[in-house]
Design brief:
There is one protein chain. The chain is of the alpha+beta class. It has 9 helices and 16 strands. A hairpin with a 4-residue loop joins strand 8 and strand 9. Helix 1 packs across helix 5 and helix 2 crosses helix 3. The two termini are 26 Å apart.
């Protein structure tokens, strides 16, 4: 049987910052919470999902993620079952964000101070928020995964792939900026077709497509400044057939969330969007999750977070 609280810790998050900081964090948590929690370290990709499933099966009432957006994505995929239902509807998720971007925590308002997190865990307050589910082509035909913050394909998928293949020691903001400047000049825009909520199909040439539950990505950029975690919908932002110079010139507007009125940007809100989009890399909460997006849809009020 698991303790009441299980911390899932990714020591590689934030370019290894979590490994260096965790001993001090654990000491603070033990002093505030006592010894009644368990720590499970992620040894490899996908282990946070396994740890979350195991903790819930063993009776844990709170699963706390210590890491970045990618670690949280794995935890969420362990929290929800194949039908999009919580494995334990009363169980809570918590975040102690230490990672490259930690963008979901900005929308949720999660804190990275361990003493504050300990107080929140003791407080008992929680908040139900939406999740997203996406379907993509895989070797077995089609596969599904959940996301909690932002899904993206196009140039953004290529940028995230570069970030994750290089050092993150410069921090999130600089890591993403350098990846944008190195990847975008060579990216070739692509044609896709999409249908929103079962409506008519639209064919467009795009640089990037963002499907957002949260407001931030790329270590503080605001692609979807009006996204709401509790509205039962996803915010879609389509960056059209724009060249690198135009995108680079408008990066400050993207950082401030002031880009939606720019020429070439289309935005709308959906419960489901179906796509024909070729073999594009898919970025899911800051991790490359596959290729060939087929569908994104909202899973309303699926996740119970400590607040």
């Amino acid at each position: 049987m698991a303790p009441d609280i299980v911390f899932i810790v990714n020591p590689r998050a934030g370019g290894g910052r979590t490994r260096r900081r965790w001993p001090r964090i654990e000491t603070i948590l033990r002093g505030r919470i006592g010894s009644s929690f368990d720590v499970r370290i992620t040894e490899a990709t996908g282990r946070a999902t396994d740890h979350c499933r195991e903790a819930l099966r063993e009776g844990a009432s709170t699963v706390a993620c210590v890491g970045g957006d990618g670690t949280l994505n794995e935890v969420v995929n362990g929290y929800l079952d194949e039908a999009g239902r919580p494995r334990n509807p009363e169980a809570r998720l918590a975040i102690l964000p230490i990672g490259t971007g930690c963008d979901f925590s900005k929308t949720l308002g999660a804190q990275n101070d361990p003493a504050t997190v300990a107080r929140q865990l003791a407080g008992g307050r929680s908040r139900l928020v939406d999740a997203g589910r996406f379907t993509f082509r895989s070797a077995s035909g089609t596969s599904e995964r959940y996301f909690v913050n932002v899904a993206e394909f196009g140039s953004g998928g290529a940028v995230v792939d570069r970030v994750n293949r290089t050092t993150k020691m410069l921090g999130g903001r600089m890591s993403f900026l350098l990846a944008i400047l190195r990847t975008m000049p060579r990216y070739v825009n692509t044609q896709i077709s999409y249908a929103a909520d079962g409506g008519p199909s639209h064919s467009v040439v795009v640089n990037d497509v963002i499907v957002a539950n949260g407001r931030y990505f790329g270590a503080g950029l605001q692609p979807a400044p009006y996204a709401d975690l509790e509205d039962g919908a996803l915010d879609v932002v389509i960056v059209g057939d724009l060249d690198f110079r135009t995108i680079r010139r408008n990066l400050p507007a993207l950082r401030e969330g002031q880009h939606l009125e720019l020429p070439g940007i289309t935005t709308f809100r959906v419960r489901r969007i179906d796509l024909v989009a070729g073999d594009e890399l898919i970025d899911l909460d800051g991790e490359v999750a596959g290729r060939g997006p087929i569908r994104f849809e909202v899973v309303p009020r699926a996740l119970r977070f400590v607040v």
